[in-house]
Design a protein that fits this description.
The complex is a heterodimer of chains A (207) and B (265). Chain A is mainly alpha-helical. Chain A has a domain at 91-184. Chain A has helices at 71-80, 91-101, 103-130, 138-148, 151-157, 175-184, and strands spanning 33-35, 41-43, 49-51. In chain A, strand 1 (33-35) and strand 2 form a beta hairpin. In chain A, helix 2 packs across helix 6 (175-184). By secondary structure, chain B is α+β, with helices and mostly antiparallel strands. Chain B contains ten helices and seven strands. In chain B, strands 2-3-7-4 form a four-stranded antiparallel β-sheet, covered by helices on one side. In chain B, strands 5-6 form a two-stranded antiparallel sheet. Classes of the chains: A mainly alpha (207), B alpha+beta (265). At the A-B interface, strand 1 and strand 3 of A face helix 5, strand 1, helix 6, strand 5 and strand 6 of B. Strand 3 of chain A pairs parallel with strand 1 of chain B, so a sheet runs across the interface. Chain B: This is Large ribosomal subunit protein uL23m.
Chain lengths: 207, 265
């Protein structure tokens, strides 16, 4: 079959091989040195790139990763996993969310616990007056949770709940705002099953 | 060696007089005032990374730098890998080609367009631990093509596909190619071929609807010939379409409405 010949003239962008003098177009390989006075070129090895290769012995990874893999799906799979530990959230924010999601359960089970929270808040407020400069350590916060008896409950029930994984800061007296903060916070998108908590300059509150 | 291109130069331009420079050189830390900031930083980095060696070797390095800075940096042994630009997670494909017509010490690759020879040498050494003697690189321009949109009669615009870079490497040691894969079933080659064929046929049918056909429709011809043979041999009896098509039959008998045009019958 006869194939039509390709077009000879077309207004296309110039390639690296077109035009003779006074025109230079490279392939963006980068500068690796400098031109000398006499038209030569001296390589400066400080400008050269070094490709770091990890130790690939006994590695199960292959060099090819499909571009279609969505890291968010990996995140979802991690959430379904039983070993998944969600990011820390305020216990109170979680219960407030529960209250809004299913008010019946809240009225029967959680009223008593909210009293405990109120007590703990009082203690924390006293502590914060005593040591106003120091923030409560996360371990100490855990201990207070244990003393109330909510530690197990907190860890089991937050596994399924995605929205409460967002960080929320508890401000006593602003429960409505707090709930909104806890719920509408953006989901963390990460392939890491247990994302490390971000360290911020803000003081960590006990709940 | 003085470098001409001030914009990209690697060397210092010495603003000091000869006497001044001699005086500074005699002082223990005088070289810091003679050399430019980036060179001083390089020496400091060497010391910080414990790559400078003994005090005597450090002195030697500074002496070389004072003598001729560009020459010092143009020797790869003088600049350790740690003090070059670091690349950790590159995203590119390097394809090793089967070129049995080349001598056993030569291997050729398709590499990304922005690769240069220094890149490739470092890449082969760090990833595959292969020593390289010499590299040739060639950029192959592609020919002008025309866009062909399916279902459009008008010719598409002209464009030039991206060029490709080929690098041929002379290795220290000769090598033998790995054997070619004969069983391609783990990669589902058959389904891939099938899909290709189906896509081709789909494209042909689509283009036949809009453009004048280039090839004759052989399938249709065959089916017509077959039908004619069947009629001639008496295997099929001719009936009018209102009898042969069941929906039409029902409509003509008055048992159902016309499926196409509602309300007319």
């Amino acid at each position: 079959m006869v194939r039509p010949s390709t077009a000879l003239s077309a207004r296309l962008r110039l390639t690296t091989k077109q035009v003779n003098g006074g025109y230079y177009k490279g392939n963006r390989t980068g500068s690796m040195g400098a031109h000398t006075e006499w038209g030569g070129y001296v390589i400066d090895y400080r400008k050269a790139r070094n490709y770091n290769c990890p130790d690939l012995k006994d590695s199960r990874l292959t060099p090819f990763v499909s571009a279609q893999i969505d890291p968010r799906n990996l995140d979802r799979a991690a959430r379904d996993d039983t070993t998944y530990i969600p990011g820390r959230s305020s216990g109170r924010a979680f219960i407030e969310a529960w209250k809004n999601d299913s008010p019946d359960e809240y009225s029967t089970k959680l009223d008593k616990w909210m009293l405990y929270f109120a007590q703990a808040e009082k203690i924390a407020a006293q502590q914060s007056i005593e040591h106003s400069a120091e923030a409560l350590e996360p371990e100490e916060a855990d201990k207070t949770m244990e003393s109330i008896g909510l530690e197990d409950h907190y860890h089991i029930d937050t596994q399924g709940d995605k929205d409460t994984t967002a960080e929320a800061e508890d401000v006593p007296g602003e429960s409505g705002r707090l709930w909104r903060k806890g719920i509408t916070g953006q989901r963390k998108i990460s392939s890491n099953p247990a994302p490390p908590q971000q360290e911020t300059d803000q003081r960590r509150q006990p709940y | 060696m003085r470098l001409w291109n001030a914009h990209r130069r690697v060397f210092y331009k010495n603003p000091l007089s000869y006497q001044n420079r001699l005086e500074l050189q005699s002082q223990p830390d005088g070289w810091r005032q003679i050399l430019t900031e980036d060179v001083v930083k390089f020496v400091d980095d060497l010391k910080a990374n414990r790559l400078a060696g003994t005090p005597e070797q450090q002195k030697q390095i500074i002496k070389q730098l004072l003598h001729n800075t560009p020459r010092f940096f143009s020797r790869p042994k003088n600049v350790p890998l740690e003090l070059r630009k670091q690349v950790f997670l590159p995203n590119f494909v390097v394809t090793f080609m089967r070129t049995p017509h080349l001598p056993p010490k030569y291997a050729s690759f398709w590499v990304p367009l922005w690769f240069n020879k220094l890149d490739f040498k470092n890449y082969l050494k760090n990833v595959y631990n292969v020593d390289v003697l010499h590299i040739r690189s060639y950029v192959q321009q592609s020919k002008v093509e025309r866009e062909q949109l399916p279902g459009s009669r008008t010719p598409g615009r002209l464009f030039r596909p991206q060029a490709r870079k080929k690098m041929t490497v002379e290795l220290v040691d000769p090598f033998i190619y790995p054997e070619e894969e004969k069983d391609l079933s783990p990669w589902e080659s058959e389904t891939f071929k099938k899909e290709l064929k189906q896509n081709e046929e789909m494209f042909k049918e689509e283009s036949r609807a809009t453009q004048p056909p280039i090839d004759p429709d052989l399938k249709r011809r065959e089916s017509i010939a077959q039908q004619a043979q069947e009629f001639l041999q008496g295997r099929q009896r001719w009936r009018p379409s209102w009898q042969s098509i069941p929906t039409d039959t029902r409509v003509m008998q008055g048992t159902s409405r016309s499926p196409g045009i509602r309300g007319t019958i």
